Amino acid sequence: MARPEQPHDDEYTHVVPAALYISIWAALMVFTLITVLASFAELGPFNIVVALLIATIKGTLVVLFFMHLRYSPKLTMAAVIASIFFLFIMFSLTMTDYLSRGWATFAGR
Amino acid sequence: MATSTEIQAAERSFQHHFASIEQQRDTATFGMWMFLLTEIMFFGGLFCSYLVYRHNYYEAFVEGSQKMNIILGAVNTAVLICSSLSMAMGVRAAQMGNRKLMVILLLITIVFGFGFLGIKAVEYHEHWTNHEFPGPNFHFETGDPAHPATDPLHTEIYFGLYWAMTGLHALHMIIGIGLVTWLVIAGMRGAYSPMYYSPVENVGLYWHFVDLVWIYLFPLLYLISHKHS
Question: Which of B48, B70, B223 faces A51 most closely, judged by CB atoms?
Answer without folding.
Answer: B223
